[in-house]
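ugh ok so i messed up the first submission bc i forgot one of the chains. this is the corrected input, ALL of the components this time, i swear. 424 residues overall. if the numbers dont match what u have on ur side tell me asap before i send this to the collaborators (the ones from the other lab, u know who)
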Amino acid sequence: MAYLPEALTELIHRLSRLPGIGPRAAERLALALIERDPTEVSALALALTDAVARVGHCPQCGCLSQDGADCRVCADATRERGLICVVESPLDSVALEKGGGFHGLYHVLGGAISPLAGVLPEDLSIAALLERVAGGEVRELILATNASPEGEATALYIRQELDELRERRLARGAEAITLRVTRLARGLPSGSQLDYADAATLQSALDNRTEL
Amino acid sequence: MAYLPEALTELIHRLSRLPGIGPRAAERLALALIERDPTEVSALALALTDAVARVGHCPQCGCLSQDGADCRVCADATRERGLICVVESPLDSVALEKGGGFHGLYHVLGGAISPLAGVLPEDLSIAALLERVAGGEVRELILATNASPEGEATALYIRQELDELRERRLARGAEAITLRVTRLARGLPSGSQLDYADAATLQSALDNRTEL
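and heres the new structure output, hopefully the right one now
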Protein backbone atom coordinates (compact mmCIF):
# COMPACT_ATOMS: atom_id res chain seq x y z
CA MET A 1 0.00 0.00 0.00
CA ALA A 2 2.78 2.37 -0.99
CA TYR A 3 0.16 4.74 -2.40
CA LEU A 4 -1.21 5.51 1.06
CA PRO A 5 0.26 7.70 3.83
CA GLU A 6 2.05 5.63 6.51
CA ALA A 7 -0.30 6.63 9.34
CA LEU A 8 -3.16 5.26 7.24
CA THR A 9 -1.33 2.03 6.41
CA GLU A 10 -0.74 1.53 10.13
CA LEU A 11 -4.44 2.08 10.89
CA ILE A 12 -5.45 -0.39 8.17
CA HIS A 13 -2.99 -2.94 9.57
CA ARG A 14 -4.43 -2.53 13.09
CA LEU A 15 -8.02 -2.73 11.89
CA SER A 16 -7.38 -5.82 9.80
CA ARG A 17 -6.31 -7.71 12.93
CA LEU A 18 -9.80 -7.37 14.38
CA PRO A 19 -12.00 -10.45 14.21
CA GLY A 20 -14.25 -10.54 11.16
CA ILE A 21 -12.49 -7.65 9.42
CA GLY A 22 -10.40 -8.61 6.41
CA PRO A 23 -7.80 -6.44 4.65
CA ARG A 24 -10.36 -5.01 2.19
CA ALA A 25 -12.88 -4.11 4.89
CA ALA A 26 -10.07 -2.60 7.01
CA GLU A 27 -9.03 -0.36 4.12
CA ARG A 28 -12.58 0.80 3.42
CA LEU A 29 -13.09 1.44 7.14
CA ALA A 30 -9.83 3.39 7.53
CA LEU A 31 -10.53 5.59 4.50
CA ALA A 32 -14.03 6.30 5.79
CA LEU A 33 -12.68 7.06 9.27
CA ILE A 34 -10.20 9.71 8.20
CA GLU A 35 -12.93 11.52 6.24
CA ARG A 36 -15.01 11.68 9.43
CA ASP A 37 -15.41 14.36 12.04
CA PRO A 38 -12.16 14.10 14.09
CA THR A 39 -14.09 14.48 17.37
CA GLU A 40 -16.11 11.38 16.52
CA VAL A 41 -12.95 9.39 15.86
CA SER A 42 -11.40 10.64 19.12
CA ALA A 43 -14.55 9.52 20.91
CA LEU A 44 -14.13 6.06 19.38
CA ALA A 45 -10.47 5.91 20.41
CA LEU A 46 -11.44 6.97 23.93
CA ALA A 47 -14.27 4.42 24.09
CA LEU A 48 -11.76 1.75 23.09
CA THR A 49 -9.18 2.51 25.77
CA ASP A 50 -11.92 3.18 28.33
CA ALA A 51 -13.65 -0.15 27.71
CA VAL A 52 -10.39 -2.11 27.87
CA ALA A 53 -9.32 -0.34 31.06
CA ARG A 54 -12.66 -0.49 32.90
CA VAL A 55 -14.39 -3.66 31.78
CA GLY A 56 -13.28 -6.71 33.72
CA HIS A 57 -14.78 -9.73 35.40
CA CYS A 58 -17.28 -9.75 38.26
CA PRO A 59 -15.58 -10.98 41.47
CA GLN A 60 -18.70 -13.07 42.27
CA CYS A 61 -19.45 -14.87 39.02
CA GLY A 62 -16.81 -13.94 36.43
CA CYS A 63 -19.26 -12.22 34.06
CA LEU A 64 -18.39 -8.87 32.48
CA SER A 65 -18.47 -5.99 34.95
CA GLN A 66 -17.12 -2.49 35.26
CA ASP A 67 -14.46 -0.97 37.55
CA GLY A 68 -14.09 -4.20 39.55
CA ALA A 69 -17.66 -4.00 40.86
CA ASP A 70 -20.19 -6.83 40.89
CA CYS A 71 -21.84 -7.38 37.51
CA ARG A 72 -25.38 -6.19 36.86
CA VAL A 73 -26.79 -9.67 37.38
CA CYS A 74 -25.10 -10.27 40.75
CA ALA A 75 -26.00 -6.72 41.86
CA ASP A 76 -29.67 -7.25 40.98
CA ALA A 77 -31.53 -8.11 44.20
CA THR A 78 -34.50 -9.52 42.26
CA ARG A 79 -32.48 -12.40 40.74
CA GLU A 80 -32.99 -15.88 42.16
CA ARG A 81 -29.88 -16.61 44.28
CA GLY A 82 -30.52 -20.36 44.44
CA LEU A 83 -30.32 -20.90 40.68
CA ILE A 84 -26.87 -20.81 39.05
CA CYS A 85 -26.17 -21.18 35.37
CA VAL A 86 -22.61 -22.43 34.74
CA VAL A 87 -21.14 -21.16 31.46
CA GLU A 88 -17.74 -21.36 29.79
CA SER A 89 -17.23 -17.68 28.97
CA PRO A 90 -18.71 -14.27 29.85
CA LEU A 91 -20.01 -14.07 26.27
CA ASP A 92 -22.22 -17.09 26.91
CA SER A 93 -23.95 -15.22 29.72
CA VAL A 94 -24.40 -12.21 27.41
CA ALA A 95 -26.15 -14.52 24.90
CA LEU A 96 -28.39 -15.94 27.65
CA GLU A 97 -29.20 -12.48 29.07
CA LYS A 98 -30.36 -11.34 25.64
CA GLY A 99 -33.12 -13.93 25.76
CA GLY A 100 -34.23 -12.42 29.06
CA GLY A 101 -35.78 -15.72 30.22
CA PHE A 102 -33.22 -16.63 32.87
CA HIS A 103 -33.65 -15.09 36.32
CA GLY A 104 -30.89 -16.75 38.29
CA LEU A 105 -27.18 -16.00 38.67
CA TYR A 106 -24.18 -17.13 36.61
CA HIS A 107 -20.87 -18.84 37.18
CA VAL A 108 -18.21 -18.42 34.52
CA LEU A 109 -15.72 -21.28 34.28
CA GLY A 110 -13.26 -19.47 32.04
CA GLY A 111 -13.16 -22.21 29.41
CA ALA A 112 -13.67 -25.94 29.05
CA ILE A 113 -11.44 -28.87 29.93
CA SER A 114 -9.25 -29.69 26.94
CA PRO A 115 -6.04 -31.63 27.66
CA LEU A 116 -4.94 -31.20 24.03
CA ALA A 117 -5.14 -27.41 24.33
CA GLY A 118 -3.50 -27.60 27.76
CA VAL A 119 -6.64 -26.61 29.70
CA LEU A 120 -6.91 -28.74 32.85
CA PRO A 121 -9.70 -28.70 35.47
CA GLU A 122 -7.55 -26.62 37.82
CA ASP A 123 -7.34 -23.89 35.17
CA LEU A 124 -11.10 -23.39 35.43
CA SER A 125 -12.99 -21.84 38.34
CA ILE A 126 -14.45 -25.20 39.40
CA ALA A 127 -13.17 -24.95 43.00
CA ALA A 128 -14.97 -21.60 43.38
CA LEU A 129 -18.15 -23.19 42.01
CA LEU A 130 -17.95 -26.03 44.56
CA GLU A 131 -17.48 -23.43 47.30
CA ARG A 132 -20.62 -21.60 46.18
CA VAL A 133 -22.50 -24.90 46.28
CA ALA A 134 -21.05 -25.84 49.68
CA GLY A 135 -22.48 -22.58 51.02
CA GLY A 136 -25.83 -24.39 50.90
CA GLU A 137 -27.90 -21.64 49.30
CA VAL A 138 -27.82 -23.12 45.78
CA ARG A 139 -30.72 -25.41 44.86
CA GLU A 140 -30.15 -25.83 41.13
CA LEU A 141 -27.08 -25.79 38.91
CA ILE A 142 -27.66 -25.55 35.16
CA LEU A 143 -24.50 -26.80 33.41
CA ALA A 144 -24.68 -24.65 30.27
CA THR A 145 -21.33 -25.55 28.75
CA ASN A 146 -21.04 -25.71 24.96
CA ALA A 147 -22.49 -28.69 23.09
CA SER A 148 -18.94 -29.65 22.06
CA PRO A 149 -16.85 -32.63 23.26
CA GLU A 150 -14.90 -30.27 25.58
CA GLY A 151 -18.10 -28.73 26.95
CA GLU A 152 -19.60 -32.17 27.55
CA ALA A 153 -16.46 -33.41 29.29
CA THR A 154 -16.43 -30.32 31.52
CA ALA A 155 -20.07 -30.81 32.51
CA LEU A 156 -19.43 -34.47 33.35
CA TYR A 157 -16.34 -33.58 35.38
CA ILE A 158 -18.30 -31.00 37.41
CA ARG A 159 -21.12 -33.54 37.93
CA GLN A 160 -18.55 -36.01 39.41
CA GLU A 161 -16.95 -33.34 41.62
CA LEU A 162 -20.40 -32.48 42.99
CA ASP A 163 -21.06 -36.14 43.78
CA GLU A 164 -17.74 -36.34 45.62
CA LEU A 165 -18.56 -33.16 47.54
CA ARG A 166 -21.86 -34.69 48.64
CA GLU A 167 -20.13 -37.93 49.73
CA ARG A 168 -17.45 -36.06 51.70
CA ARG A 169 -20.16 -34.11 53.53
CA LEU A 170 -22.14 -37.27 54.30
CA ALA A 171 -18.96 -39.00 55.51
CA ARG A 172 -18.21 -36.28 58.03
CA GLY A 173 -21.89 -36.11 59.09
CA ALA A 174 -22.56 -32.59 57.74
CA GLU A 175 -26.02 -31.58 56.53
CA ALA A 176 -26.85 -33.12 53.12
CA ILE A 177 -27.02 -30.79 50.13
CA THR A 178 -30.19 -31.05 48.08
CA LEU A 179 -29.08 -29.89 44.66
CA ARG A 180 -30.61 -30.36 41.24
CA VAL A 181 -28.02 -30.54 38.45
CA THR A 182 -29.41 -29.97 34.96
CA ARG A 183 -28.13 -29.18 31.51
CA LEU A 184 -29.58 -27.30 28.51
CA ALA A 185 -31.89 -29.26 26.22
CA ARG A 186 -30.52 -30.75 23.00
CA GLY A 187 -32.70 -30.63 19.88
CA LEU A 188 -33.50 -28.70 16.73
CA PRO A 189 -32.63 -24.99 16.81
CA SER A 190 -35.70 -22.73 16.55
CA GLY A 191 -36.65 -21.87 12.99
CA SER A 192 -34.37 -24.53 11.51
CA GLN A 193 -35.19 -26.98 8.75
CA LEU A 194 -35.04 -30.70 9.37
CA ASP A 195 -33.10 -31.47 6.20
CA TYR A 196 -30.31 -29.08 7.19
CA ALA A 197 -29.87 -30.54 10.67
CA ASP A 198 -26.85 -32.79 11.27
CA ALA A 199 -27.27 -36.40 12.36
CA ALA A 200 -26.26 -35.82 16.01
CA THR A 201 -28.75 -32.96 16.38
CA LEU A 202 -31.54 -35.02 14.84
CA GLN A 203 -30.73 -37.97 17.09
CA SER A 204 -30.88 -35.83 20.25
CA ALA A 205 -34.12 -34.23 18.99
CA LEU A 206 -35.55 -37.72 18.64
CA ASP A 207 -34.19 -38.95 21.99
CA ASN A 208 -35.54 -35.92 23.82
CA ARG A 209 -38.91 -35.72 22.06
CA THR A 210 -41.70 -34.21 24.18
CA GLU A 211 -45.51 -34.66 24.35
CA LEU A 212 -47.39 -32.24 22.09
CA MET B 1 -28.18 -3.64 26.49
CA ALA B 2 -28.74 -3.33 30.22
CA TYR B 3 -26.89 -6.61 30.67
CA LEU B 4 -23.55 -5.09 29.60
CA PRO B 5 -21.22 -2.72 31.50
CA GLU B 6 -21.70 0.93 30.45
CA ALA B 7 -18.17 1.33 29.07
CA LEU B 8 -18.89 -1.60 26.78
CA THR B 9 -22.27 -0.23 25.69
CA GLU B 10 -20.54 3.04 24.79
CA LEU B 11 -17.92 1.20 22.73
CA ILE B 12 -20.62 -0.78 20.90
CA HIS B 13 -22.49 2.46 20.19
CA ARG B 14 -19.35 4.10 18.77
CA LEU B 15 -18.43 1.07 16.68
CA SER B 16 -21.94 0.74 15.25
CA ARG B 17 -21.66 4.23 13.76
CA LEU B 18 -18.82 3.11 11.52
CA PRO B 19 -19.70 2.47 7.87
CA GLY B 20 -20.55 -1.14 7.15
CA ILE B 21 -20.73 -2.15 10.82
CA GLY B 22 -24.23 -2.87 12.08
CA PRO B 23 -25.31 -3.18 15.73
CA ARG B 24 -24.71 -6.96 15.79
CA ALA B 25 -21.23 -6.72 14.26
CA ALA B 26 -20.39 -3.85 16.64
CA GLU B 27 -21.35 -5.99 19.63
CA ARG B 28 -19.34 -8.98 18.45
CA LEU B 29 -16.37 -6.69 17.75
CA ALA B 30 -16.55 -4.94 21.14
CA LEU B 31 -16.78 -8.23 23.05
CA ALA B 32 -13.80 -9.58 21.10
CA LEU B 33 -11.83 -6.38 21.70
CA ILE B 34 -12.11 -6.40 25.48
CA GLU B 35 -10.90 -10.02 25.59
CA ARG B 36 -7.79 -8.95 23.66
CA ASP B 37 -4.36 -7.98 24.76
CA PRO B 38 -4.82 -4.40 26.13
CA THR B 39 -1.60 -3.23 24.45
CA GLU B 40 -3.01 -4.24 21.08
CA VAL B 41 -6.19 -2.27 21.71
CA SER B 42 -4.17 0.76 22.84
CA ALA B 43 -2.18 0.49 19.62
CA LEU B 44 -5.43 0.54 17.66
CA ALA B 45 -6.69 3.57 19.58
CA LEU B 46 -3.37 5.32 18.95
CA ALA B 47 -3.43 4.43 15.25
CA LEU B 48 -6.92 5.92 15.04
CA THR B 49 -6.07 9.29 16.57
CA ASP B 50 -2.72 9.36 14.78
CA ALA B 51 -4.28 8.76 11.36
CA VAL B 52 -6.97 11.39 11.88
CA ALA B 53 -4.44 13.94 13.13
CA ARG B 54 -1.76 13.32 10.50
CA VAL B 55 -3.53 12.31 7.31
CA GLY B 56 -4.72 15.26 5.28
CA HIS B 57 -4.78 16.42 1.70
CA CYS B 58 -1.78 17.06 -0.54
CA PRO B 59 -1.37 20.83 -1.15
CA GLN B 60 -0.60 20.11 -4.83
CA CYS B 61 -3.34 17.70 -5.90
CA GLY B 62 -5.70 17.09 -2.97
CA CYS B 63 -4.90 13.37 -2.63
CA LEU B 64 -4.27 11.81 0.78
CA SER B 65 -0.96 12.84 2.30
CA GLN B 66 0.71 12.96 5.69
CA ASP B 67 1.72 15.86 7.95
CA GLY B 68 0.81 18.46 5.30
CA ALA B 69 3.51 17.24 2.91
CA ASP B 70 3.07 16.49 -0.78
CA CYS B 71 1.46 13.11 -1.45
CA ARG B 72 3.56 10.16 -2.59
CA VAL B 73 2.47 10.62 -6.19
CA CYS B 74 3.36 14.33 -6.37
CA ALA B 75 6.65 13.69 -4.54
CA ASP B 76 7.60 10.94 -7.01
CA ALA B 77 10.00 12.46 -9.56
CA THR B 78 9.41 9.60 -12.01
CA ARG B 79 5.72 10.46 -12.55
CA GLU B 80 4.76 12.17 -15.80
CA ARG B 81 4.07 15.83 -14.91
CA GLY B 82 2.21 16.56 -18.15
CA LEU B 83 -0.54 14.00 -17.56
CA ILE B 84 -3.21 14.83 -14.98
CA CYS B 85 -6.06 12.57 -13.95
CA VAL B 86 -8.99 14.58 -12.55
CA VAL B 87 -10.97 12.67 -9.92
CA GLU B 88 -13.84 13.52 -7.58
CA SER B 89 -12.36 12.25 -4.30
CA PRO B 90 -9.01 11.10 -2.87
CA LEU B 91 -10.46 7.57 -2.68
CA ASP B 92 -10.80 7.52 -6.47
CA SER B 93 -7.05 8.08 -6.81
CA VAL B 94 -6.44 5.28 -4.30
CA ALA B 95 -8.51 2.96 -6.53
CA LEU B 96 -6.55 4.05 -9.62
CA GLU B 97 -3.17 3.69 -7.87
CA LYS B 98 -4.04 0.11 -6.93
CA GLY B 99 -4.15 -0.76 -10.62
CA GLY B 100 -0.63 0.64 -10.94
CA GLY B 101 -1.13 1.45 -14.64
CA PHE B 102 -1.33 5.23 -14.36
CA HIS B 103 1.94 7.15 -14.28
CA GLY B 104 0.78 10.77 -14.25
CA LEU B 105 -0.37 13.07 -11.47
CA TYR B 106 -3.82 13.63 -9.96
CA HIS B 107 -6.15 16.51 -9.33
CA VAL B 108 -8.89 15.98 -6.74
CA LEU B 109 -12.01 18.09 -7.31
CA GLY B 110 -13.53 17.42 -3.90
CA GLY B 111 -16.88 16.24 -5.28
CA ALA B 112 -19.10 16.65 -8.31
CA ILE B 113 -21.44 19.44 -9.34
CA SER B 114 -24.89 18.73 -7.90
CA PRO B 115 -27.21 21.73 -7.54
CA LEU B 116 -29.76 19.57 -5.68
CA ALA B 117 -27.18 18.66 -3.03
CA GLY B 118 -26.01 22.30 -2.97
CA VAL B 119 -22.62 21.58 -4.60
CA LEU B 120 -21.84 24.35 -7.10
CA PRO B 121 -18.80 24.62 -9.42
CA GLU B 122 -17.17 27.14 -7.06
CA ASP B 123 -17.26 24.53 -4.26
CA LEU B 124 -14.91 22.31 -6.28
CA SER B 125 -11.21 22.94 -6.96
CA ILE B 126 -11.88 23.75 -10.64
CA ALA B 127 -10.16 27.16 -10.49
CA ALA B 128 -6.99 25.48 -9.17
CA LEU B 129 -7.19 22.96 -12.02
CA LEU B 130 -7.44 25.75 -14.62
CA GLU B 131 -4.43 27.40 -13.01
CA ARG B 132 -2.42 24.17 -13.32
CA VAL B 133 -3.42 23.99 -17.00
CA ALA B 134 -2.61 27.69 -17.59
CA GLY B 135 0.90 26.94 -16.32
CA GLY B 136 1.40 25.33 -19.73
CA GLU B 137 3.13 22.14 -18.58
CA VAL B 138 0.02 19.92 -18.84
CA ARG B 139 -0.47 18.11 -22.16
CA GLU B 140 -3.32 15.75 -21.25
CA LEU B 141 -6.21 15.92 -18.80
CA ILE B 142 -8.10 12.69 -18.11
CA LEU B 143 -11.51 13.61 -16.69
CA ALA B 144 -12.06 10.55 -14.47
CA THR B 145 -15.22 11.69 -12.71
CA ASN B 146 -17.80 9.06 -11.77
CA ALA B 147 -20.04 7.58 -14.48
CA SER B 148 -23.04 9.21 -12.75
CA PRO B 149 -25.15 12.18 -13.98
CA GLU B 150 -23.28 14.46 -11.54
CA GLY B 151 -19.90 13.15 -12.67
CA GLU B 152 -20.84 13.62 -16.33
CA ALA B 153 -22.09 17.14 -15.70
CA THR B 154 -18.87 18.00 -13.89
CA ALA B 155 -16.71 16.67 -16.74
CA LEU B 156 -18.74 18.68 -19.29
CA TYR B 157 -18.49 21.82 -17.15
CA ILE B 158 -14.69 21.49 -16.91
CA ARG B 159 -14.48 20.87 -20.68
CA GLN B 160 -16.37 24.18 -21.26
CA GLU B 161 -14.19 26.08 -18.79
CA LEU B 162 -11.10 24.82 -20.61
CA ASP B 163 -12.50 25.99 -23.95
CA GLU B 164 -13.15 29.43 -22.45
CA LEU B 165 -9.64 29.54 -21.02
CA ARG B 166 -8.22 28.79 -24.46
CA GLU B 167 -10.35 31.53 -26.09
CA ARG B 168 -9.39 34.14 -23.49
CA ARG B 169 -5.70 33.36 -24.11
CA LEU B 170 -6.14 33.60 -27.87
CA ALA B 171 -8.05 36.91 -27.48
CA ARG B 172 -5.20 38.52 -25.56
CA GLY B 173 -2.59 37.06 -27.91
CA ALA B 174 -0.97 34.68 -25.42
CA GLU B 175 0.63 31.41 -26.56
CA ALA B 176 -1.99 28.76 -27.46
CA ILE B 177 -2.33 25.78 -25.12
CA THR B 178 -2.14 22.37 -26.81
CA LEU B 179 -4.12 20.15 -24.46
CA ARG B 180 -5.74 16.77 -24.95
CA VAL B 181 -8.88 16.29 -22.84
CA THR B 182 -10.00 12.67 -22.48
CA ARG B 183 -12.30 10.62 -20.27
CA LEU B 184 -12.28 7.00 -19.08
CA ALA B 185 -13.71 4.42 -21.47
CA ARG B 186 -17.28 3.20 -20.99
CA GLY B 187 -18.04 -0.47 -21.53
CA LEU B 188 -18.45 -3.84 -19.88
CA PRO B 189 -16.60 -4.26 -16.57
CA SER B 190 -13.85 -6.90 -16.74
CA GLY B 191 -15.04 -10.37 -15.88
CA SER B 192 -18.71 -9.44 -16.12
CA GLN B 193 -21.47 -11.37 -17.86
CA LEU B 194 -23.43 -9.83 -20.70
CA ASP B 195 -26.83 -10.84 -19.36
CA TYR B 196 -26.18 -9.06 -16.04
CA ALA B 197 -25.13 -5.76 -17.63
CA ASP B 198 -27.65 -2.89 -17.57
CA ALA B 199 -28.94 -1.35 -20.79
CA ALA B 200 -26.84 1.85 -20.56
CA THR B 201 -23.64 -0.13 -20.04
CA LEU B 202 -24.41 -2.42 -22.95
CA GLN B 203 -25.22 0.56 -25.19
CA SER B 204 -21.89 2.27 -24.43
CA ALA B 205 -20.07 -1.04 -24.92
CA LEU B 206 -21.67 -1.23 -28.38
CA ASP B 207 -21.02 2.44 -29.20
CA ASN B 208 -17.37 2.20 -28.17
CA ARG B 209 -16.66 -1.21 -29.70
CA THR B 210 -13.04 -1.70 -30.80
CA GLU B 211 -11.30 -3.72 -33.53
CA LEU B 212 -10.26 -7.18 -32.39
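quick check: Chain A has two domains: 6-56, 64-211. that seems consistent at least. Chain A is about 45% helix and 10% strand.
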